[in-house]
Amino acid sequence: MGSIVEPWVTAENGNATAKGSNRELRHGRTAHNMSSSSLRKKSDLRLIQKVPCKTLKNILSNFQEVILGTKLTLLFLAIPLAILANSYHYGRPLIFGLSLIGLTPLAERVSFLTEQLAFYTGPTVGGLLNATCGNATELIIAILALANNKVAVVKYSLLGSILSNLLLVLGTSLFCGGIANIRREQRFDRKQADVNFFLLLMGLLCHLLPLLLKYAATGEVSTSLINNMSLNLSRTSSIVMLIAYIAYLIFQLWTHRQLFEAQEDDDDDAYDDEVTVEETPVIGFWSGFAWLVGMTLVIALLSEYVVATIEEASDSWGLSVGFISIILLPIVGNAAEHAGAIIFAFKNKLDISLGVALGSATQISLFVVPLSVIVAWIMGIKMDLNFNILETSSLALAIIITAFTLQDGTSHYMKGLVLLLCYVIIAACFFVDQIPQKQPNGTIVGIQPKNNPGSGFFSA
Amino acid sequence: MAGIVTEPWSSAENGNASMTAKGSSRELRHGRTAHNMSSSSLRKKSDLRVIQKVPYKGLKDFLTNLQEVILGTKLAILFPAIPAAIICTYCGVSQPWIFGLSMLGLTPLAERVSFLTEQLAFYTGPTLGGLLNATCGNATELIIAILALTNNKVAVVKYSLLGSILSNLLLVLGTSLFCGGIANLRREQRFDRKQADVNFFLLLLGLLCHLLPLLYTYVATEDTPAAVISDMSLVLSRSSSIIMLISYIAYLVFQLWTHRQLFDAQDQEDEYDDDVEEETAVISFWSGFVWLVGMTLVIALLSEYVVATIETASESWNLSVSFISIILLPIVGNAAEHAGAIIFAFKNKLDISLGVALGSATQIGLFVVPLTIIVSWIIGINMDLNFNLLETGSLALSIIITAFTLQDGTSHYMKGLVLLLCYFIIAICFFVDKLPQKQPNGLNMGLQPMNNVVTATGGGVFSS
Predict the structure, then answer these.
(1) Checking CA distances to B259, which of A25, A72, B323, B346 falls within 20 to 30 Å?
(2) Number of Cβ within a 10 Å radius of residue A198
(3) Residue in A closest to B245 by C-alpha
(4) Among A307-316, B268-277, B377-386, where is mean pLDDT lowest?
(5) Residue A279 in 3-state DSSP?
(6) Tens digit of pLDDT for each residue in A367-388?
(7) How far, in Å, CA of B395 to CA of B388, rounded?
(8) Could you give the dihedral angle defined by the CA atoms of residues A154, A158, A164 and A170, in that order, rounded to the nearest 10 degrees?
(9) Inter-chain contact A435–B211, Cβ cutoff 8 Å?
(10) Going by C-beta distance under 8 Å and a sequence separation of 6 or more, which residues neighbour residue B406?
(11) Where is A428: in which H helix or E strand?
């Protein structure tokens, strides 16, 4: 969920822009952090001031900053409930639902913590930290699903994250922003969007070729040969994709940093009211680090529950695993930055909304996906980049529609509405899709059709 | 037939007199759509001298009315095809003749319908007039589609609608840009790309809706029964149709209300005044309404003949039904606005040509197609959005090529030529395509291949 857009000039290389203020020169704030910071609350420290003991006071204020510092705090209750439900063997779908709800505030807190750490480490390392940990939830779910040999869940959830960022987050932001600013023309810098798009297209190529290998084969070629070819191609492509991503980081954080700085607006004053402008870190470096590690472990725990219970949840809720992985999981995982992107679009700061959505899509497509393939390679699991024709075509059309929509540098509500409706159609497509997908390891992913044509389906 | 709702001048309704600095009183009076303007190029000024000699006033008014409506177009010579077609049906003349005559008769009718909607727009105001155009603009395609549905010829529906979109995107646009480019060889031709862009991403939305049901057939494994796939495809198509209609309504809101200024064509100077003189309606509201209803009924009648005789015509002319539906029918149906778009391109008024062609394509893609699906849902016929691989591929590439060609806001004859040649290639593709398409009702849609492979595959193809 992290993008690396740094809207203000950083103090590190001393490039002060003409309008550089002290605040902006202090640290590099990423668009992602700014968007999530809209969900933050200013901590009310009066109660704690009354506590006599100093260390206790520090601990309590630390606690308050981290746990209670967000409007999503209520959802934190879902975490202990999920753990309880698991220990006492309540219904699996319940565990699934509670884990999903619990993941939402955790993702937001992780972004808060990475921002706090960025105060200490400086903007470049902070940007790097965001670039890797920004989509921590998706990465952890993917790796855990791999460890359980559920390759389909990995593929679907990663694809769903990209689709959700490209169509859902972007669509709702542009739509709400367009409605709120209906009399104004909304502009944004298309150069930044373009970089993301050609990287996404490169990722699409890497997905397309293994898919087409299957169709290029004539009748006599054995499936194992095709799978082998596909696997080798996927693994090599993953290495290339990671190289591209590293180059993208260099481009964004070092050589062409100025391209990614958002345009300064006149109405900066309006900005200060909404966003909690934290110019100094509110927690110490080591406590932040400890919290980060702790929260990542809790995310891992909840993701373990999610991955383990996804089939039973799908059976009992009557939805296919594909639908849950592609549509539900990413909505939950992206909820915090989704809200942030919409708020920024309302304020006509489209560069930030775009930075959040597109940067996140690029990060998942060019970092998390190839990383998953390589992790699978290390584990000895056969995961390739062939995401099957329906998913790959949805991805292709989503990228093409979004790229086309954003190519002129302006926006209005129709654009957002069209992207949103595309997402709804793709969701409907996966909702209706009842064809069980046969996986290489023989497990069935999907709802069985009503008329059972044969026992072939049930072979495991 | 191609109703688009670009309103090049500010409307009097909400008093936006600020639209252009050169806003004259004529322009402020009513909103004229690009479609109406393009068709008006085919109009003749009515010569009322003969009628003035008629003594009775009532008869004079009636004759004036008749002359305005029937003879007010250069296409009036095609009108005799209508009674000829009706007579042929009753005399039992061979069906291909009926088919040809009906097609000829449809051409002037479509043009007259657009004339009548423009006349009515004088009375109803620009917004309502725009809405009227948006719904009735492609009346011919809509009526043919619904009649074919009631005759359970789902393939003809799909082909004809697809052919209309292709014809608007490639043929009309290509010839306009080509002729306009040749005529204005020394000038740079510019147009406002924002208006074109809105149409394009709506068309891409429509393409997505066609693509996903098509892919269901490829996702299926060998064990999956065909009934499950067609069922899924049907459910997805029907929900997508509702979404497409929602987006079309949003498009109308966007175009007629909130972002109207985006669609006001750049104001042109005096050269415009020569062509368009009709500032007031030439027929009254009720007579216009009656004529509109009457002409729609005649269109329905001729479309009935077309739909009924299409198979026999295809066999006797040795063309596949798909070729006739995709290529011939839309050429006939679009002829009037085709001519208008070319004329405006000659005058370097590209915004209007683009408005005609792209608006029409959007209207068919996002209004007529989903409306047809919903009508078939109500009637109980299983029509889905899966237009088969060849057709969907052609549609995808034509949208992409056209979008890419128009994305920089300028034009020259090469662009038009390329679009035109793309259309020819697609036409040749369907001309050569002799594979019989198996329909759910077992109807054979194409020519039989030379070596009767068909009989070898058994009665599956011929069973109905």
Answers:
(1) B346
(2) 12
(3) A421
(4) B268-277
(5) coil
(6) 999 999 999 999 998 998 998 8
(7) 11
(8) 170
(9) no
(10) B191, B193, B196, B200, B354, B415
(11) helix A413-432
Q: Which residues lie below 8 Å from residue B189, measured CB to CB, with a gap of 6+?
A: B180, B181, B348, B350, B410, B411, B412
Contacts of B211 in chain A (CB under 8 A): 393, 397
Percent with pLDDT over 90 in chain B: 23
Task: Please choose, from the candidates B329, B301, B339, B323, the residue with its C-alpha nearest in 3D space to the C-alpha of residue B100.
Answer: B329
Residue B125 phi/psi, 5-degree rounding, is 90, 165
How confident is the model over A169-221, as pLDDT tens digits?
Answer: 999 999 999 888 887 778 888 888 888 999 999 999 999 999 888 887 766 77
Which of A183, A186, A421, A439 is the mutation pick for testing B, counting most B CBs within 10 A? A421
In terms of Cα–Cα distance, which of A197, A167, A436, A400 is closest to A315? A436
Q: Is A89 left (phi over 0), alpha (psi -120 to 50) or beta?
A: left
Q: Does A409 touch chain B (CB under 8 A)?
A: no
Chain A interface includes B401 (CB < 8 A): no
Q: Which amino acid is at B216?
A: Y
Distance CA B112, CA B63 (A): 17
Torsion of CA B138, B142, B144, B149, to 10 degrees: 170
Q: Which of A211, A404, A413, A437 to mutate to test the interface with B (most CBs of B within 10 A)?
A: A404
Q: How far is B364 from chain A (nearest CA, A)?
A: 17
Q: What pLDDT is stored for residue B171 in this prediction?
A: 93
Chain A CB within 8 Å of residue B429 CB: no
DSSP 8-state class, residue B437: P
Q: Which two tokens stand for residue B449?
A: 């291949």
Q: Do B204 and A182 touch (CB under 8 A)?
A: no
CA nearest to B215 within chain A: A390
Contacts for B310 with CB less than 8 Å, ≥ 6 apart: B99, B153, B156, B321, B324, B325
Query: What per-residue confidence (pLDDT) applies to A34?
Result: 56
Distance (Å, whole) CA A349 – CA A357: 13
Q: What's the CA gap between A411 and B246, in Å, rounded?
A: 20
Write out pLDDT tens, residues A99-137: 888 888 887 777 777 777 777 777 777 777 776 776 888
The answer, for A128 touching chain B at a CB cutoff of 8 Å, is no
Structure tokens at B128: 């309502």
The number of C-alpha atoms within 13 Å of B447 and in the hemisphere containing its C-beta is 18
Residue B43 DSSP code: B
Nearest one of A46, A26, A112, A47 to A73, comparing CA atoms: A112
Distance between CA B105 and CA A387 in Å, rounded? 52
Q: What pLDDT score was predicted for residue A28?
A: 38
Distance from CA of B310 to the nearest CA of A (A): 35
Closest-CA distance of chain B to residue A319, Å: 14
Q: 3-class SS at B235?
A: helix
Asked if B205's CB is within 8 angstroms of A408's CB, the reply is no
A78–chain B nearest CA distance, Å: 35
Residue A458 forms contact with B (CB below 8 Å): no
> Closest to B215 (Cβ–Cβ): which among A390, A401, A425?
A390
**In this structure, what token pair is assigned to residue B10?**
């500010």
Q: Residue A411's beta-bridge partner residues?
A: A186
One-letter amino acid for residue B108 of the chain: P
DSSP state of A457: G
Q: Which two tokens mark A178?
A: 């367009």
